[in-house]
Amino acid sequence: MELSPLAKEKLASIGELSAEEKTRLKYSEQLTSLLAEYFTNELSPDDLWKELKRHKDEGRGFLLKDAQLKILDAIKLSSSDMDIDKLRRGILAAETLKDNGDYSSLEHDLRSIDGIRQQYKEERDKAYEKIKADVDRQVRLAAQQLAGQAAAKGATIDVQSSVEANAKASPEWKRFISRHESTYGQKFGEQIARIREMLSA
């Protein structure tokens, strides 16, 4: 396929990667592999710190910020407490190796992410329990009415499963969860962006 003159011009302007760019790319790939081991629990936070320190001591301090940003990308609103703790410790481990690190400010901002997550979870669980209680009354009433017929046919009614299924399928729950995800998704995103800006500075 023949490239357009514009495409040829763009390719020419990009040119070959410089020696420094090739080196950065090589070590960036090594960092991705290192973090994959960290995310899958093959490396502890202490092991990660040692590996990052080795890179820094060998003149690759740029990997500290890269590592923090990659770990930050892995933090989700739905992450478990254990995962969040591991990711937080990984980001802070890299911060201790920086010459101009600001450990206490970063730790504070990372804690605020946890606060948003806890609030998100508590409000969601509270709303779900309320909706489930309303549905529970309705299902038990229906179950009582059907109990005679079911017993005559030798069947039993699984009230608990019916309550769970009906609560999650209810319009009230769907409306709540849609608003809830939107509100907390925005709060969470803003805080992540603030930390990203701090790490990128």
Give your account of this protein's structure.
The chain has 201 residues and is mainly alpha-helical. The chain has two domains: 18-101, no CATH class; 103-201. The chain is 82% helix and 0% strand. It contains eight helices and no strands. It has helices at 5-14, 19-39, 45-57, 62-73, 81-97, 103-152, 159-169, 171-200. The protein is elongated.
Quick synopsis:
The protein is an all-alpha fold and 201 residues long. The chain folds into two domains: 18-101, no CATH class; 103-201. The chain contains eight helices and no strands.
SSE ordering: HHHHHHHH
Could you say how many structural domains there are in total? 2
The whole-angstrom Rg is 26 Å
* Integer average pLDDT: 87
Question: What structural category arises from helix and sheet content?
Answer: mainly alpha
Shape: elongated
Level of helix content? over 70%
Number of strands: 0
How much β-strand is present in the residues? under 5%
Low-confidence segments, given as residue ranges, are none
Distance between the termini: 43 Å
Number of helices: 8
Topology summary:
Blueprint (H helix, E strand, L loop, with lengths): L4 H10 L4 H21 L5 H13 L4 H12 L7 H17 L5 H50 L6 H11 L1 H30 L1
Helix pairs in contact: 2-4, 3-5, 4-5, 4-8, 5-6, 6-7, 6-8
Key phrases:
mainly alpha, 201 residues, single chain, 0% strand
